[in-house]
Amino acid sequence: MTSQAVKLELKFRDILGKKVKQLRREGTTPVHLYGPEIESRPLQCDQRELLRALSRAGGNTPIMVAVEGEQDERLTFARELQWHPTRGELLHVDFIAVQATLRMSAQVPISLIGESPGAREAGGTAIQQLRELQVEALPLEIPHEIEIDLAQLVDPNGIIRAGDIQLPPNVSMLTDAEDVVVRIEITRA
Question: What does the DSSP assignment read for 130-172?
Fold first, then answer.
């Protein structure tokens, strides 16, 4: 399963330092674009547009960034997101540019689906111990999430380890294969 890149347009930013508070009041979020073979630079984006793109992309879906006045679009990932500690307002985002032809590592969230027959039989619950897997792939082949069907947990003593998870082609597991992802916990009376 390949990811679909989200698109976002950024504009140049002249306002730096503490003066960016005024930008935020006007609904603009300061961002920074950096990466190999590009000059690091301060940019800005409409806050609503940015939040929409970030929510669609999550942490591991690429964002195609176009800078106003430039021809090239860049394949990026949102890396550092800074939030206001009490208001929950997005303060700043760093975008790292990557090359589509170079493999990279990423944390991919794990999503549990279905029910475990083993947990039901034992009167227990399937407990998720690992929330994400570290994988390596080309940027456009990193899965948005990895689904694990609990129906495969038929034994009341069953566990699912990272090594048991089937990954899409061209995606390599970096998480230790022995790490427990899901186990059944039996409720004691």
Answer: --EEEEEE-GGGS-S-EEEEGGG--STT-EEEGGGPPPPTT-E
Q: Where are the alpha helices (DSSP H) in the chain?
A: 20-25, 47-57, 117-122
Q: Is the pLDDT of residue 136 over 50?
A: yes
Cβ atoms of residues 172 and 117 within 8 Å: no
DSSP annotation of 102: S
At 162-188, the pLDDT tens digits run: 999 999 999 999 999 999 999 998 876
Query: What 3-state class would DSSP assign to 3?
Result: coil
Q: Please give the model's pTM, rounded to 2 decimal places.
A: 0.72
Closest CA to 93 of 63, 130, 119, 121: 63
C-alpha span between 37 and 35 (Å, rounded): 6
